[in-house]
Amino acid sequence: MGKIQLLSEHIANQIAAGEVVERPSSVVKELVENSVDAESTRIDVTIEEGGLQLIRVSDNGTGMALEDCELAFQRHATSKIATSKDLFSIRTLGFRGEALPSIASVSRLECVTSSTSDGLGRKISIEGGTIRTVEETAASRGTEVTVRDLFYNTPARLKYMKTIQTELGHISDYMYRLALAHPGIAFSLKHNGNMLLQTLGNGDLLQVIAGIYGTAIGKQMLPLQVDSLDYTITGFVAKPEMTRANRGGISTIVNGRYVRNFALNQALLQGYHTLLPINRFPVAVLQIGMDPALVDVNVHPSKLEVRFSKEAELTALIEAEVKRLFGRQVLIPTGSKPSAPKGAYIQEQLDLMRTIEPLAAPNPSVAKAMETPMETDAPRIQIKESVTSYKPEPQKPVFDPPARTAEPKSWSPPAEVQRHTATPSPSYSNRTSSSQAASSYSPAAANPRQVSIQQQRRTNEAFMDLLPSHEESDQPKLPAFPSLEPIGQMHGTYLIAQNGDGLYLIDQHAAHERINYEYYYERFGNPAEASQELLVPITLEFTPSEAGILADRLSLFEQAGVFMEAFGGNTFLVRAHPHWFPSGEEKSIVEEMCEWVLSEKKAVDIAKLREKAAIMCSCKASIKANQGLSVLEMETLIDRLAGCRNPYTCPHGRPIVVSFTTYELEKMFKRVM
Length: 673
Known about the structure:
Elements: H1 9-20, H2 24-37, E1 42-48, E2 54-59, H3 68-71, H4 99-105, E3 108-114, E4 120-127, E5 130-138, E6 142-148, H5 155-159, H6 164-181, E7 186-191, E8 194-198, H7 205-213, H8 215-218, E9 221-227, E10 231-238, E11 243-244, E12 250-254, E13 257-259, H9 262-272, E14 281-282, E15 284-290, E16 295-296, E17 307-308, H10 311-326, H11 364-371, H12 434-441, H13 448-466, E18 485-490, E19 494-499, E20 502-507, H14 508-523, E21 531-541, H15 544-551, H16 554-559, E22 563-566, E23 571-578, H17 586-599, H18 606-621, H19 631-642, E24 657-661, H20 662-668
Parallel strand pairs: 1-7, 12-15
Antiparallel strand pairs: 1-2, 2-6, 3-4, 3-6, 4-5, 7-8, 9-10, 10-15, 11-14, 12-13, 16-17, 18-19, 19-20, 20-24, 21-23, 22-23
Family: Belongs to the DNA mismatch repair MutL/HexB family.
GO molecular function: endonuclease activity
Keywords: DNA damage, DNA repair, Endonuclease, Hydrolase, Nuclease
């Protein structure tokens, strides 16, 4: 007697349930996707105890005809495809016909549906995959599926369910993704009577994003839209200051289907490039439209993974558009921005002119004015302060960026004040009159520092033109960096600057790191010409396995300007390296380059190696925290930062400048009520 036999329909459905119905969120996913395919405009989901006790999904879609109600619960019964050709043009979320029979085989299910508006429908009850009752009932147009006691007949599956909060988190996460994929559908999600999600279904994606992630993130989202011959990409990406610790904030939607695709996520992260801090990820929603023939959704039982026919073109398009989007933004993060209410009362400000004069005897008129109550037409108060004048000695800036073909014209400080020390004198901030300050703060007023910044930009652009082109050189330039005037330094780490818009704090190490990074990044474009042979080679030692890998990848180092050769055993000698490596850090830079090459398991991208090397050089050559700077050095640092292509983040993604607007400061001091 033969040993092979056909499985019964019931057992086959339970096996399929092991693939399709992994947990309560899988049930919600399959049922809600059916509602979306039914052209519903409103979908309500109610769950109890994390979905193990109750899952109810109701919609106002097309419903099912009376004769289709029973057939829908047969295995591989579907209205989505008819021939094999339809698999290459799938335009619906569901198509396999496994969801309903699989769910019914491991639960107590009840379905009420109607395809007409006459109030008549059909109700079917199934328990453990066996149909119990089929009857006509009163029902409005649409479908309502109720699933109770999930996995009641498969205790092994029920045993491995997580906590209620964990299962609820999976359900909520997928409902959020579906709401982002279909902003034109009104979704609601309730758990034990508590409303967790409710969207209006008005088609406003940004409103859905704000409802899910909060208004703070919604206000920081930037719209993205790009079209090509094969793809249409729309959506929103958050500014670099709004990040998360994982990729959970990234939603990629293909033809209305939320998918998980590593290549698309990497393309998005490459678009941010150095704008993101290490181990931080953005919030983004990308809706990708394409011909269904270019994507295969039939590669995973839960249909969460897809394959693209032109994946390289799609990822390149996403990366380029995200870079272009940030190339049009001023990415200076700010503190909280209180909105000014209509009719806000602004406290009247006294117009005080502070005049700096040599030390003299107290002026009786000043004392009298101080004692006299202020009147509308009262004269301005004259305050006399002392200034110790001396001629500063020339000194070399603490930070010395690598020599360039042309140095920017330095801006000489005003003649009325000589500035020399790293810590400004108490009278430094009061050296100008209020009229002079108002003139320097006016956007339309002539500012000598603006000339310096423009000169620095021209110098940098001329310098970049002399060097080989690089992929970052093709990126659009950011908007003009604001003209800033340094007024001091805090803890030897942060520069304090101002302009007509408010107060700015600048991380001096991050700023200098960005300046050096762009310099070294361009230099690594053609490093071989700048390599110099060492009189005494640098010796490096590795483990036997590491030495074997490096021996096969020595050509990569040559393309980065580092000439290294095996010296026997596990030892390597560095014979030459670019002469512009930071002095004293040559060995550590080459060691870190070797470590990065060893960490790459697959083929090493030479462009990434050069970028990593540029980041290493820039970090080691930059000024550090707790290092005092003179005012002239502060000005030079700000001028060179303004000439950078991206002066807003360091190569590691940390912000360089943080601003506080004048309105925010006035709000803090209750000058604006």
